[in-house]
DNA sequence: ATCCGATCGTTGACTTGTCACCTACATCCT
DNA sequence: AGGATGTAGGTGACAAGTCAACGATCGGAT
């Protein structure tokens, strides 16, 4: 005998559906834009950004996994694909025999340099600029609150 | 000779990264929860919900495509997979010789009935409840604004 | 009636992400 | 040292989505 569930109110439902719809459409658009303008997938772009964040363009795989919050197998597959496309190379890690280091190639640098301005432009056009500064701040607070909750809840 | 791009300010960057992080982690959690508690994927759940919205549990494929804003090929693949699992069946459409109608099966009804309360519970725990009602309203407005913009912008 | 463009839906090839599992190395403890 | 335990990373099978192309049908204009 179960209690009757607390269904979502219309306002709550609007919030949740707003999130899913917004994300599905927005991320699709941004991804397509990036792909057609710069021949990079969102995942490739993200990895390259994190590599260029390091001064020498090299990072431990586990480090990338940590900051992107990806599954490690996802990262491994992704890096393999990016190696095939010549955007990065894998090197052994001197300090840790298990480890691997991902290094951006010159081609990778060219790709990200060409892609970044257009990508930022798209993010701006479709997400940042339509919102007021207060909305943007409110949004960031909301996201942080939800992320906090995800961390707290074991599940 | 290109102009120097308008990079994102830290606040803007927080907003955008907040969105991507929140979505990646939240949707992953909710999906895993749904899968482990109810053996349904998010996509299956969504389709079943839209089918049960219709009183007789049947809907034109194009109709589903329209309300979910999916690619039609995605819907076609999805329905095929769901047929294999016995959640839905496909029928011919009497009015339109090209058309197909997707119909929920009793097993599909059982699955969604069992899944819905727990799924709603998870959405509530991880997204709705942590936010204040004002935040939720603000969020819905933000999402609508972004969706509007997506419609207006040709690209 | 027929022709033509638009719509409906499916398919196959390809890309991406997940899961379960495996190996190799590191670390800690006695 | 030796053995348990944990961590880094890769692999293969699979689920899911995208894209381009296709066949079939509909509907309006001629």
UniProtKB/TrEMBL annotation, chains A, B:
One of its GO terms (biological process) is response to stress. Residues 12-148 form the HTH marR-type domain. The lineage of its organism: Bacteria, Bacillati, Actinomycetota, Actinomycetes, Kitasatosporales. GO terms for molecular function: DNA-binding transcription factor activity. Signal peptide: none annotated. PANTHER family: MARR FAMILY REGULATORY PROTEIN (PTHR33164:SF99), TRANSCRIPTIONAL REGULATOR, MARR FAMILY (PTHR33164). InterPro entries: HTH_MarR-typ, MarR/SlyA-like, WH-like_DNA-bd_sf, WH_DNA-bd_sf. Pfam families: MarR_2. It comes from Streptomyces himalayensis subsp. himalayensis. This is Winged helix-turn-helix transcriptional regulator.
């Amino acid at each position: 005998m179960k209690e009757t569930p607390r269904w979502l109110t219309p306002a709550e439902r609007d919030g949740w559906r707003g999130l899913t719809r917004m994300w599905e459409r927005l991320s699709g658009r941004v991804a397509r834009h990036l792909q057609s303008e710069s021949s990079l997938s969102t995942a490739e772009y993200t990895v390259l950004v994190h590599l260029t964040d390091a001064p020498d363009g090299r990072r431990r795989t586990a480090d990338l996994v940590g900051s992107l919050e990806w599954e490690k197998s996802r990262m491994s597959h992704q890096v393999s694909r990016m190696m095939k496309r010549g955007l990065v190379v894998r090197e052994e890690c001197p300090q840790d025999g298990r480890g691997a280091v991902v290094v951006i190639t010159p081609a990778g640098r060219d790709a990200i340099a060409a892609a970044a301005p257009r990508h930022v432009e798209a993010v701006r056009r479709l997400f940042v600029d339509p919102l007021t500064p207060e909305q943007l701040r409110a949004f960031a607070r909301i996201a942080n609150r939800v992320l906090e909750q995800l961390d707290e809840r074991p599940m």
